[in-house]
Amino acid sequence: xxxxxxxxxxxxxxxxxSLIWLAYWLRKDAHPEPKxxxxxxxxxxxxxxxxAIIFQLLFVQxxxxxxxxxxxxxxxxxxxxLWAAFVExxxxxxxxxxxxxxSPDFDEPVDAMIYMLTAALGFAAMENILVINRVAADxxxxxxxxxxxxxxxxxxxxxxxxxxxGYFIALAWYYYEKRKSLFAVGLALATVFHWSFNLxxxxxxxxVSLVFSTLLLMIMAFLISSLFDKIKEREGQVTPTVV
Length: 243
Hints:
- This protein is mainly alpha-helical.
- The chain has 8 helices and no strands.
- The protein has one domain.
């Protein structure tokens, strides 16, 4: 296979986890969103993802200059992971903000969770592409192993953390006057969840960290599934106020 064909294959492999999870979560929406809008949000999630890297690098350079520390020592630690999680959640939200929030198709509270999930999976697709391309040289076994970990780990993480923020955006339909506070709470919780997972993964050489990260994802997956059901039940009981 030529280099272009190999690159396209690796891109496809990288995007596949996001598409699988997207197909699963879209089933939670009783009134499917326009495919064109879903596609736009997914693509913008991919396009905006490099912004997170830029902001993370700027953070490292700023702290390094502020405290006179070598930048190489600042890209791996609790404070960096917290900043990285915060920036990534904001970037994923930006994809939804620019495409959806003022669209007439954004007509149900549950849509906030659907579109945040979609943007997150676009973001994760770009991460997966970069990681898969980096490890492909190590052979098929290594590539499949990393792909499996990304599918069940980081890709799902992005979807769940953004869906959590989406739930609080959905609540703003019912408590419009508190929309800013709800957004802040949702962003904070999504960031903390994302940050916690990253901390566990950073300690992958310790077997207990894998147990904790897996348990965290299982709990969050159950929570997000419950929140989907809760917001849909509420839609049938109360007429929401448009955000």
